[in-house]
Model the fold of this input.
Amino acid sequence: MTSKRRIYLTGALAGREFLRRTQSDLHVHQQYLPESLRWEMVFTTASQPPEFLAGFVDAIGAFVLMTLEGCDINPQTWEVLAAVER
Done:
């Protein structure tokens, strides 16, 4: 595995972790801040290489697309690496 691929997959895992935290926050606080994804992208991915950002965005995108297709995805158990490698 190349280092760029490893960085990409690390970004995908960070995307899943963002989804996990967001889901937990929703259960606790019963509200969602629409700008939270933008904040995460600015503060977490800004200092990372472009491959990290690509993995992060692809993971979020895969989650959204699978959800729109009707899949019931739990971020706590979701196999994000399998989803982004399709």
Summary: Helices lie at 3-29, 36-43, 50-68, 80-84. The chain has a mean pLDDT of 90. The radius of gyration is 13 Å.
